[in-house]
Write a structure and sequence with these properties.
The protein is built from 8 helices and 7 strands. The chain has a 7-stranded parallel β-sheet, with helices on both faces. α1 packs parallel to α2 and α6 packs across α7. The longest helix is centred in the middle third of the chain and has 29 residues. The two termini are about 30 Å apart.
């Protein structure tokens, strides 16, 4: 299927690794000119080279922290008129909510709620003026089924979800859609780091901790960043203009509910 977005321009936040990289690769395969943003130059340059070699698309890199005002300014200077925006940022620390300080809460809200809102604010009117826009926020399956040790993420990402629900119905008439993708357990550096932490906490081996997580997934495996990216690319396509304000849960069947 031709997704109809060849020649479009995209900003992919936290695009050097994991799910962000999967999205950047999938968009580039569709002929999108991609600007990837992340804090580490080495990983960014390596990912950009990999995407260029695999797709032939133009890839720009911006070494910046998207959760900071100056980072967002740098991303928008490199791609001032994006047709596609993929909001993404690393999740906040896990732990017991009793141990979360005010500073930890503010950092989580800044990174996982306010930074995406600021990026939307900076780009949505230009998308409306041009008559095309696709905004995708990478949130978490914890928005749908909260996880006790992810209190910071539960709160901040749910705040973003509520905000999106309030504006996505206003922009769609202009062919600008805003949707969220809610990943479950994917084979990424972040997820494997959490498995390592679980192993240490429970006094078990990494392999045992990994097997325990797999048992919670009906699909019997972790997700692959490239399949996450494929979903993102479709949500960004010309064929998805009738989808807005939705939360696409992609977790291998782990969520047990009907709705």
């Amino acid at each position: 299927m031709d997704l109809g977005i060849r020649g479009r321009k995209a900003i992919v936040c936290a695009g050097s690794k994991g799910l962000g990289k999967g999205c950047a690769m999938a968009l580039a395969r569709e002929g999108v000119e991609v600007t990837i943003v992340a804090r580490g130059r080495e990983a960014l340059e390596a990912t950009a080279a990999e995407i260029r070699a695999a797709t032939g698309s133009t890839v720009h890199v911006v070494v910046a922290d998207i959760t900071k005002p100056e980072g967002r300014a740098a991303a928008l200077a490199a791609c001032p008129a994006p047709d596609i925006l993929v909001n993404n940022a690393g999740g906040p620390p896990t732990g017991d909510f009793r141990e979360f300080t005010r500073d930890m809460w503010i950092a989580a809200i800044d990174a996982n709620m306010l930074a995406p809102i600021e990026m939307i604010k900076a780009t949505v009117d230009g998308m409306i003026a041009r008559g095309f826009g696709r905004i995708v926020n990478i949130t978490s399956s914890a928005v749908k089924a909260p996880i006790d040790i992810l209190g910071l993420s539960n709160g901040a990402r749910s705040g973003l979800t509520g905000f999106v629900a309030g504006i996505a119905r206003k922009t769609v008439v202009h062919n600008v859609t805003i949707n969220n993708i809610l990943p479950g357990l994917y084979e990424t550096e972040t997820m494997l780091g959490r498995v390592e932490a679980m192993a240490r906490t429970n006094g078990v081996t990494f392999d045992d901790a990994r097997a325990a997580r797999l048992k919670t997934i009906p699909a019997g495996r972790f997700g692959k960043p490239e399949e996450f990216g494929a979903l993102c690319a479709f949500v960004c396509s010309e064929h998805a203009s009738y989808l807005t304000g939705q939360n696409f849960l992609t977790d291998g069947g782990a969520y047990p509910g009907t709705y």
